[in-house]
Amino acid sequence: MQTADTSEKRPTHEVVYQRLREKVLFGELAPGQAVTIQGLVETLGVGMTPVREAIRRMISEGALVFQGNRRVSVPSLSPDDIDQMVFIRKSIECELANRAASNISDAGVNRLAEIDAALDKALLAEDIHNYLVHNYQFHAELYRHANAPVLTDIAERVWLRFGPSMRVVCGQLDAGNFPDRHKDILEAMRRRDGELAALAMERDVKQGMEQIRHGLSREVDSIDKE
Q1: Sheet containing strand 71-73, strands side by side
Q2: Which residue from 156, 163, 204, 207 has the fewest beta carbons nearer than 10 Å?
Q3: Measured between alpha carbons, how far is 197 from 189 in angstroms, rounded to an integer?
Q4: Which of 73, 98, 94, 97 is nearest to 164 (CA)?
């Protein structure tokens, strides 16, 4: 998984793609919220061409949908969408965790612990944005050690689809109820126990996706009552 850390080393169209990707991934664009292409040009402070290219890539990845009239939006998730994502995440991310446990070094485990500590700090501060960033970074760092680029690419695409809904759901929760089973994953990494890592990841995925399911259901009920 990628983060926009080295923008000065990459062409403009790639930098713009990463910036738009992070806006979607961390919920700055809410599900169902339509935005104009011109509005994204102004927000990102770049020309029309790289924004159009970034949007094209995001649409191909299922992270954005074209609404017509030069508008795009982040797709809202249905219950069936969530069911499919749970299946994919359990299949892919548990295998990634299993592989990472066999490959990770002590330095890699220490880096995961550092990211998790930053996540804990964000939780204490009730800082939703940084919680989402560090939660993603934890998984991204873990999967990097799996040395499985095809599986990681699939995981990235799924994260783009459920990430925006995590922002919505976390806004409904007390910080103490935010999904976080990373301590179990860290322990499995320290033991280099692939089966334990896969089990811990399965529980992490299940907890997080169930929070999304309940949160979105609550939001729909709230809208229906208005």
Answers
A1: 34-36, 71-73, 65-68
A2: 207
A3: 7
A4: 73
**Which residues are registered as beta bridge partners of 74?**
31
Distance separating alpha carbons of residues 132 and 169, to the nearest angstrom: 11
Question: Tokens 């061409």 label which residue?
Answer: 49
Distance of CA 75 to CAs 10, 57, 160, 211, Å? 28, 15, 10, 18
pLDDT tens per residue, range 110-167: 999 999 999 999 988 989 999 999 999 999 999 999 999 999 999 999 999 999 998 8
Compute the distance between CA of residue 79 and CA of residue 81 in angstroms, rounded to an integer: 5
Q: Is the pTM of this model over 0.85?
A: yes
> How far apart are the C-alpha atoms of 28 and 43, rounded to whole Å?
12
